Amino acid sequence: MQGLPILYSFRRCPYAMRARMALIASCLAYEHREILLRDKPASMLAVSPKGTVPVLILAGGRVIDESLDIMRWALDQSDPEGWLAGADLALIADYDGAFKHHLDRYKYAVRYGDDPLVHRAAAAAMLSQLDAQLAVLDFLGGAVRGISDIAIFPFVRQFAGVDPFWFQLQRLPNVQRWLAGIAGSELFERAMVRRALWTEYQG
């Protein structure tokens, strides 16, 4: 395979969101293929049978189908903002694991059959710790955004969006500031541009 890397993505997926933000921040060119998760293209399933996004196919044919691996690959090629320097891998793992667990059971309570308020409280407790960390830092790695910020941002944003009024009433001023700053950034705006759906016949 020759040419640009190909990214299969779905605009609202938090995993695809963070992968896109890293690719944009890296200034690497790539071909974006926007898909519907309910109508996954055969070409994507052929290279990544698990059927989740994002999927990045490199020019040499290598397939990367985990969002954090895509972020790290992109930043290993080009990291103009120094995102990797302040990486907090333990924090990222906590938010990919425990926080996402509670987020899903809060947002999709009917699906899981759990008490959403129990999981909301557990996730909020994690955000309280994050708030304390952000009390002395603009971002999680220091004065500028980095991979830790962008890796967990989509999940915190999703949590805040379940009940925005409740979230704004919480004593999380630093998390709220941090979240609003990233959500209002040019990087996020570029990552969330609405694109026409890609179809197989486009080649």
Structure, described:
It is a single chain. This protein has 203 residues and is an alpha+beta fold. The protein folds into two domains: 6-82 and 193-202, Glutaredoxin (3-Layer(aba) Sandwich); 86-187, Up-down Bundle (Glutathione S-transferase Yfyf (Class Pi), Chain A, domain 2). The chain is 55% helix and 6% strand. The protein is built from ten helices and four strands, in the order βαβαββαααααααα. The protein has helices at residues 14-26, 42-47, 67-77, 89-107, 109-112, 116-134, 147-162, 164-169, 173-183, 186-191; strands at 6-9, 31-34, 55-57, 63-64. Strands 2-1-3-4 form a four-stranded mixed β-sheet. A hairpin with a 5-residue loop joins β3 (55-57) and β4. α1 (14-26) packs parallel to α3 (67-77), α1 runs antiparallel to α7 and α6 crosses α9 (173-183). The longest helix is centred in the middle third of the chain and has 19 residues, at 89-107. The chain is globular and about 50 Å long. It starts with 5 loop residues before the first strand and ends in a 12-residue tail after the last helix. The model has no long low-confidence stretch (mean pLDDT 96).
CATH level 3 topology of the largest domain: Glutathione S-transferase Yfyf (Class Pi), Chain A, domain 2
Oligomer: single chain
Q: What structural category characterises the helix and strand content?
A: alpha+beta
Can you tell me the CATH class of the largest domain? Mainly Alpha
Order of helices and strands: EHEHEEHHHHHHHH
**Outline:** globular
**Stretches with pLDDT under 50, minimum 5 residues:** none
* Count of DSSP strands: 4
Q: Could you give a short account of the major beta sheet?
A: 4 strands, mixed
Helical proportion, percent range? 40-55%
Q: Helical element count?
A: 10
Report the average pLDDT across residues: 96
Based on CA atoms alone, the radius of gyration comes out at 17 Å
The tally of domains stands at 2
Major sheet: order of its strands? 2-1-3-4
Query: Under the CATH scheme, which architecture of the largest domain would be assigned?
Result: Up-down Bundle
How far do the termini sit from each other? 13 Å
